[in-house]
Each structure stands twice: as structure tokens, then as C-alpha cells.
Design a protein that fits this description.
By secondary structure, the protein is α/β, with parallel strands linked by helices. The chain has helices spanning 6-13, 58-63, 85-100, 113-124, 142-148, 168-175, 191-194, 197-204, 206-209, 224-227, 283-296, 301-310, 339-352, 372-385, 397-409, 422-432, 450-459, and strands at residues 4-5, 16-18, 26-27, 31-32, 43-45, 68-71, 79-81, 103-108, 130-132, 156-160, 180-183, 216-220, 236-240, 249-255, 261-267, 270-275, 320-323, 329-332, 358-362, 390-394, 416-419, 438-442. The chain contains 17 helices and 22 strands.
């Protein structure tokens, strides 16, 4: 974080100081909420959860070098006491962002946010010091913590914004006002909570409404819900995608023999060839979004193409492709799932496993509401159409719907199986996998199917595996 005194922080957040002998002492390290991350110069934000109360670790974090605790009660060590720690973090983030002078890029969408954010960050890092959201910390706590990790040297701040309801993105954009706002898509993720795509579009579009007149909205020309958001902003609008309206586009899109996308990138400043290290054709749209942002920030087509070609996956359990010593390839995409990302992962599996035996180990897609049956059925059917060799549906009712969709699509249904849990999936794979097979593992985060991928990787060619 930029250096701030405890007195200044207390004023910004409207807090009272306790047990602070010298209020001019500065916080020079990061703001953290995990006591294990506290170190010299840091500020520890103490949250009281259902099972763990951060205030109980106050003495330990100060002993580790933290300057003070930001909490809701005195703790016997230097502390700034507020009524609401989350609100205080937001106020502090707003203050720091105003002081920074960095260009703030915010992005949202139903699918692909984290992968695209990682691409944008890796491209912009070529131009100037960049701070970006780690993983998917895109909510009311994670976003301020990311903003607070910026320093005086930071020139670009790339923030992922998530939403589970109307008003969420508007709130986040108020804490960290963006100069560039990117909307990727409007899909089915969280449709059960929102109530429909129109409501999702309303929520995602709050990002472009928050842009200043001298800002830029970067919109997906291929998504009608996103394209329509152009009317909701006074900022400049640029489009990316395959549509004729797109300012940033791709031609000659293809997949390499290993399932990695290649294409010729077109921007208003020129064209250049890209061959990505990521897997799956869905990353082309993510790359175009990143390219549009980078173009708007002054990078040439050649600079962008080189950066996209060298960019890797920065966040775990997202299309992580690993080959075991025995030749089995494990594709761990188990961090989360929605209908759009599930279908994209299946297409990637088909490309990676061309000419090989392929397995789709799939579980529940959460928060789909009344659409759950139809969406799980559709995924099962797609696995058949893509000629995936075997579907292993893991879990309860939703897994049964996946398996039923595959069965109803045709005789291939005999190659689908429904198992009760992750360990049952591992047991099945242990007995039937052969060298050269490709296994995709994917479900919503709550299912925990990463344990299947981990067990398969730990087993290697040695045989014994277990899901933990």
C-alpha cells in the first residue's frame, strides 16, 4: 500500500485509535485479512466470522510486524476501531485509489472474468507496473484489498468485479472508479439468484454506467445483451468479437494439434499473429477483450500479440493441463462451472483429445434455479455430440440429469455413468484409465472435484490414488 500514517487512516475510515503511542507511524506494507500474511509494516483487518474471529489473532499479527489492527473493538495492541470493517476497507480503498493516479481497468461478465483479467494483467505488465486481482477475489472484501496492494509505482490497476445481485457492481465501482470498463458476456451463471438474463444484464451494465465521459467501455459485440449496454454510458465505446461491428477482431481462428488457439489479431492500429499457450477456443474471445483494453491504453498490435502469445494461466484449477508420466493427460478446470464455461471446457477436451480416448468428469452447476434441469441435460447431450468417450457424472440430482441428457442423446449413453462422489469417480478412473487418455474435471466450486484431479496427478503411473 502507499504509505499512510495511522492517524490518516483513522481519519479516512472514521475510526478511533486505541493503544497507539505514536499515531504518525506509517503503514507501509499490505493490508491483510489472513493473520498468516501479516508482516512488517502491514495493517491487519480483523473480521469476526462464524468459526474464527480475527480479533483473537491481534497480538500475534503485531508480533509478526503488523503496525496495527483494523477491527470493531480494542484488542490490547495498536488498533483503529470502527463500526464496520468491510465499510472501512472500502473507504480506505477509495482514498488510496484517488491518491494513486493509476489507470483503473475493471471487468465483469458471467464467464471468463478471471482468465481475461489474468490476460489483461500480463499484457499491461509489458507496458508499466500493474497490480491485479489475485484469483477471483472480486467481492466487497477482495476488491478493496487488491486496490490497497497498489503502490506509488503502480500505473495500471486491473480489478475483477463480481455480482450476485443488482447494485453490487455499482457499489464496487463506487469504491474503485474505473477509467476503462469491460463487459465480457451475459450468461447463465447465478441465474437462479438474479431471476433471468435481463436482470443479469442490468447488473453487469452498472459497470459502464459508472464510467466517466472521458472513459472507455469495452463491449462484446457478439453478445446482444452486452452490445446493448453501449446506450447506457456516456463514455467512448469500442467493440471486440467476430461481429462486423467489432473494432478488435480475429481471423483465421484455429486450434493447434494440442488444442491451443491461434489467430490473426486485428486492431485499429494494425494486425499481428497470435498463438496462445492457453487451451480452448473460448480463450480467443478473452484474448480479444484483453487486446481491446491494451489497444485503448496505447499498445500496438505487435506488442499485444507477443504478450498474448506468451501469457499463461495465473489462477489455479482453470484449464490446467498436466501430462502424467504414463501419458494420461489431466485437465483440471474444477474451480467453478456454469453452462457457458462447461460447454467451452467440453469443446476444449474434444480438441485436446483428438484421436485419443477422452473422459469428462463433471458435477453440479450451482445457482441455476429453474434452468438447472435443462442446462444439465444440455451439457450431457453436448458431451455426446462432441464424441467424448465417457462421461462420469459425479454427485446427486444434477449429476443424474447430466447422465440422463447423455443417455437421451443416443446410444452413446451406455458410455455414461453416474457415481455418488469424488472417491467413487477416482476408483472408477483408477481401474479404467489407459496411457494416452485425456481426463477433464469440472464442476461448481462447492462440489470440490479438484480432489479428483489432484488424486489422479498424485497417482501418476504408480496406481494408488484417493480423493481427499
Amino acid at each position: 500500500m502507499i504509505a499512510l500514517s495511522l492517524a490518516e487512516i483513522a481519519e479516512v475510515v472514521g475510526g478511533q485509535t486505541y493503544d497507539i503511542p505514536d499515531p504518525t507511524v506509517q503503514v507501509t506494507g499490505p493490508v491483510v485479512r489472513d493473520s498468516r500474511e501479516a508482516g512488517p509494516g502491514s495493517l491487519f483487518a480483523a473480521f469476526a466470522g462464524e468459526r474464527v474471529d480475527g480479533h483473537d489473532f491481534a497480538a500475534a499479527v503485531v508480533g509478526a510486524g503488523a503496525v496495527a489492527v483494523l477491527g470493531t473493538r480494542p484488542v490490547g495492541v495498536p488498533a483503529i476501531v470502527v463500526d464496520d470493517v468491510q465499510a472501512a476497507l472500502g473507504a480506505l480503498a477509495r482514498h488510496v485509489v484517488r491518491r494513486l493516479g493509476a489507470t483503473l481497468v475493471a471487468l465483469t461478465g458471467s464467464a471468463g472474468k478471471t482468465s481475461t483479467k489474468d490476460l489483461i494483467a500480463q499484457v499491461l505488465q509489458r507496458k508499466a507496473p500493474t497490480v491485479f486481482t489475485p484469483g477471483s477475489l472480486n467481492n466487497e472484501i477482495g476488491l478493496p484489498l487488491t486496490a490497497l496492494s497498489a503502490t506509488e509505482e503502480t500505473r495500471f490497476l486491473v480489478l475483477e468485479m463480481g455480482a450476485r445481485g443488482i447494485g453490487h457492481i455499482s457499489y464496487l465501482a463506487g469504491l474503485t472508479p474505473p477509467k476503462i470498463g469491460l463487459v465480457l458476456n451475459v450468461g447463465s451463471a447465478h441465474i437462479g439468484e438474479f431471476g433471468g438474463r435481463e436482470q443479469i444484464a442490468q447488473a453487469k451494465g452498472e459497470l459502464v454506467e459508472a464510467l466517466p465521459e472521458d472513459g472507455t467501455a469495452v463491449l462484446n459485440a457478439d453478445d446482444p445483451y452486452v452490445r446493448a449496454m453501449a446506450s447506457r454510458t456516456k463514455a467512448k465505446v469500442i467493440f471486440f468479437g467476430e461481429s462486423d461491428e467489432a473494432d478488435v477482431s480475429a481471423e483465421n481462428v484455429r486450434l493447434t494439434d494440442t488444442g491451443q488457439p491461434a489467430f490473426r489479431l486485428h486492431t485499429p492500429s494494425g494486425a499481428s499473429d497470435v498463438t496462445m499457450r492457453l487451451y480452448g477456443e473460448h480463450h480467443v474471445s478473452n484474448a480479444l477483450a484483453a487486446a481491446a483494453v491494451a489497444h485503448e491504453l496505447g499498445m500496438s498490435a505487435d506488442e499485444i500479440a507477443v504478450a498474448l502469445s506468451e501469457a499463461g494461466s495465473l489462477s489455479r484449477w482453470r484449464m490446467e493441463v498436466t501430462e502424467r508420466p504414463d501419458g494420461v493427460t489431466v485437465v483440471n478446470d474444477a474451480y467453478n462451472a456454469n453452462p457457458e464455461s462447461m460447454k467451452a471446457a467440453l469443446r476444449a477436451l474434444a480438441a485436446i483429445g483428438k484421436g485419443r480416448r477422452t473422459w469428462a468428469v463433471l458435477g453440479k452447476m450451482a445457482e441455476l434455479g429453474d434452468e438447472a434441469l435443462a442446462e444439465h441435460d444440455a451439457v450431457g447431450r453436448l458431451a455426446v455430440r462432441l464424441n467424448v468417450s465417457k462421461l462420469v457424472a459425479v454427485g446427486g440430482r444434477e449429476a443424474a440429469w447430466l447422465q440422463l441428457g447423455a443417455y437421451n442423446e443416443g446410444s452413446w449413453g451406455e458410455e455414461s455413468v453416474h457415481v455418488s462422489d469424488a472417491q467413487a469417480a477416482v476408483d472408477l478412473l483408477r481401474s479404467e484409465l489407459r496411457p494416452g487418455d485425456v481426463v477433464l474435471v469440472k464442476a461448481s466450486r462447492s462440489v470440490g472435484l479438484e480432489s479428483v484431479a489432484q488424486a489422479l496427478l498424485e497417482s501418476g503411473a504408480e496406481g494408488e490414488v484417493s480423493a481427499r
